[in-house]
Structure formats: structure tokens, C-alpha cells
Amino acid sequence: MTRRDFFIRGSGGLGVAALAQLLRAGSTAHGGQPGFPNFPARAKRVIYLFQSGGPSQYELFDYKPRLKQFAGTDLPDSVRQGQRLTGMSASQSSFPVVPSKFAFAQHGESGAWISELLPYTAKVADQLAFIKTVNTEEINHDPAATMAQTGFRLGGRPSMGAWISYGIGCETDNLPAFVVMISNSGGGQPLYDRLWGSAFLPSKYQGVKFRSGKDPVLYLSNPSGFTTDNRRTYLDELAQLNQASYQDYGDPEINARISQYEMAFRMQASVPELADISKEPQHVFDLYGEDARKPGTFAANCLVARRLAERGVRFIQLYHRDWDHHGNLPVDLPKRCKDVDQASAGLILDLKERGMLDDTLVIWGGEFGRTVYCQGHLTATDYGRDHHGRCFTMWLAGGGVKPGITFGETDDYGYNIVRDGVHVHDLQATILYSLGIDHLRLTYKFQGREFRLTDVGGRVVKDVLT
Question: Distance (Å, rounded) from C-alpha 100 to C-alpha 96?
Fold first, then answer.
């Protein structure tokens, strides 16, 4: 035996022993890293309601009454400040300002300004913290969404859910730490698996995609004639082969593969029960809306998200697409709002009624916002807006967030930040902080460098936390 063989086999023996302990312990199979959380956490879990495409802050949350005075006038150069434009509006000869055609009103004791398009969200205004100055350097969908979800504009970095499950693990051994669901919204920008991937982290930390329909997870059910006992015997034999391979090669992904097989076996019992919402009482469907009875809708996914949160899943990511309104905004935006408004508010109320909102952080927003000027030809009844990353609105709720506040201010055009800007990395650092994680300490060494979710930036926005 060579010196190299000795160390590989020695580490393999230790790895197998540790793996056996993991499989016996069950609840530590998705355990976090030593020393994490770094301090007492405000939240135990996250539900991220990602609105892919870029919802318009002008029509939803950032009320700008003075825009009516500027309607149809060209956006001043002093406001635009030479901002980099997308290829869709860079060739325009003018940039006419367009005010929202939808009415706004103040709601709750907090007096939050919310559009008539979100009547249910308005009812829970006092539970929400609106951040009106989220910003990113990205102006196109894929790099902006990749930045929002992984902390870097290019693919190849772990997603936020992967970082969190790597850092602090999961509260259950019967479901993954990180689950992803995509609404059947019918259109919009593509969503790539890397947005919930683990990149260079061990693959067991990647998000598990749940689908609508009979089998939420592909290939989870046993084939016809193949019993649970057959499956158990098969996995035991396969584990022995994988353990032998680990002893020879020392590849940690082999142990991750064994762990994933064991998780899939446990999910055969847990997932069907989780996905069966037929026993939910009528008052729950009244909260989320009747769409919650239709598998694959945003409302149904919100209800399943609450059920996942109850069962100990750490990070639950929902995607809803088709918010990219370059034209026909007055017609198409209300449709997207109707998709998500009642269910988003229902999720907040449902969590609160169950005593779970205090330790569940809920996030709502997209990869960027929209421009104050019209893209294309402005008419009396139709307009569209291009991408805008300088400032846009997101809301947070629960998980140690101050309820009923509005943070940050934009100028009269809603185009630039006046005070309290929150970069995407700042938002990510704040999310980690609510979970008891110091974003500077949650790192992973890869190719000679220590990587982290917030790359080389990020600060915790403590003013939005209790």
C-alpha cells in the first residue's frame, strides 16, 4: 500500500463511520456547520416569494403623485444621469415620463401606500416592512435574477437556499432543507436550475424542485411490483457499493449521494402526505383563495409552503413569472397581481394565526423594478416600462422584521435613491442575520479562495429588524 492509498483509505474509513452515524441519527443528516448559528436567530426558516420579471414599483408600492405634473415630458438628463440602458430602449429618441394609471391609498396604522391592484396585501400592511431602495447594478433578467439568488451576476455560485442549508442545516430528516416551486403562470423569463443549485457546495444542499400533480418529486414512487422492502434492500446494497467506492477515491460527493438516496427513501412517506391538501379546512382556502385548490398555482404553492414550513424545511423558494411588462402594462399587470395578491396576504395571516410568523421570514419581490419613462410609444391607454435596477421595492415580514414600516426614499421621479439604499448584497446579509448567521463567516473554500453569498460586499440593515 502506498502512502497515498493509506491516507485515502484511512479517510474513507472515517467517512464511512461518520456517515453511518449520520444515517442512524437522522435529524443530523442535514446538519449545519460547527459554530452556526453564530448568535441567537430571529427566524428559523425563510419563505421567498420571488416575482420573476421585475414588478413595477410605480404601479404597486412607490407612490409618486408628482409624476402627473411631469406626464409626457422627457425625463431630465439630470435625473437619468447617463444610466446604462437596455437594448430595448437605448435607441429611443425620447424618454416620456408616465405616471401610474392605478389609484393608491394609505392603509393600516402604518399608513403604507399601496396600489388598488393589491387589496389583500393592503389588509396586512401593518405586518410588512417595505424597502423602497433595493438596488442592483444588473439591467437584464438573467444576471439580475442570478445576482438576487446567488449573490453574483454569473452562474457558478451557490444559491441562497444552498448557503443557508449548508450553514445551519434543516429541522427535519424527512424532507429536504431547501425546496423550490414554480407557478404554472404560462409565460415569462426562463428560470434555470442554477438559481437553486449548490454549485461548488456538496450537492445535497441544492434545492429540490417540487412539481404540481401526482408526483411532486420525479422518480420518488416505486415502480409497479417493487415494494418498500425491495427499495430498502436495494438501497442498503447500493450504499455498500458506494462506501467501497469512497474508500478507493475519497470523493465526498459519494457520501452526499448516499445521503440523498436515504433522503429520497424517507420522502416516499413524507411527500405524499405533505402534498395532500384535501384535508385543509375551508377557512384556510378562504385565506389563500380558491386557486389554492388548483395544483401548480401560486396560491397552491403558498399553501404547500406553509405546510413545508410546519414540517421543518429551512428555505422555501417560490417563483412566479411573467412580470416583465415592456408593453401592455395596464392590461397585463393586473393579471399578475390577481395571481399573487390574496395568496401572499393569506400566507402572512395563516402563519400569524399558527404562531409561526414570528420565526418565519417572508420575502416578496423581483430581480429589479421598472423605469419611470415609457418604453416604446406612449398612448392614452397603453404604456410599458423597461428594466430599472437603481431602486425598486420589496417587502419583508415576520422573522424579526419590524412590522408596519417603510424604509428608504426615492426622488420625485422614483428614479434615484434619496436616502437609505439597500443593495442586493445588503438584503442577503440581512436575511442571513435574521437566521443567526454572520454573512462574513459563512464561507466555503474553493479553488484557493474563500467564497460567500455576499461576495465582497454586504451590510446588515439593522434598521428593518427588531
Answer: 13
